[in-house]
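Fold this sequence, please.
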Amino acid sequence: MAAKRLKVQSENQWFQLAETLKRTRRKRYQQRQFVVEGVRSINCLTETDGWSVEAFLFKRQDILSNWAKQILDRTHCPWHLELSPELMERLSDKEDTSELLAIANMPDAELSSLSTAADTILILSDRPASPGNLGTLIRSCDAFGAHGLLVSGHAADLYDPRTLRASAGTFFNVPTVQIHDPADLVSWLETVRRTLPELQIVGTSERDGAPVSACDFTRPTLLVIGNETTGMSRRNLELCDKIVSIPTVGATQSLNMACAGTVVLYEIQRQRTGRQE
């Protein structure tokens, strides 16, 4: 079925919806929708299974690039909304106004959907405070082959535009789950360990653990990375089988969540592929 076309010249309900989705977390979860901006992000959104688009917002079609026209032609979507240049400028976060935005639908993401294969690598991000760090961590998960990212506690929003921007489109390639109740994580881990008893839960600490290179990461692993300021919560610390630290030199006492996650993910892949430092 062809998309319904609508010209938007004023701050109607569609404009207000897009604007609110960009700036209000509560509205995103009420609507189960979020805004996607950027060529790479929209490409990944439309090319990756499991995602759907509710509406595309764009400037006049006769001035769109071939890329934007191809996205509109090939992507199933109920609504095509042609906005005035002034309204598009207000919605875009780019210095040069984006020609195309998408309102995407959130998938139903459950812990039970995550991989529990023998080579599993999962990341648990414990109360990440910065959307930029969270998005960068997602990018590293994609680069180093993690099978999913879990986010626990009061945390930056996975669907925040800043998270999506920092992920550089990889957000749509990495399965993500927001954990609202710690009991759900404990219950899921108990279930997984009945079928995957080799699973190890490895926490990170700035100074209290063994060197990261000393840990055997060839086993299926859930890696826990703590908050940028306070580290892991006591609840998540108690889940860990072992703790590792990243040796550093210089004045830096600790790495932020994204940097720490990237270093450990590289070490996991180094061990699993037999690469030498």
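Residues 257-273 form the longest helix (17 residues). The chain has ten helices and twelve strands.
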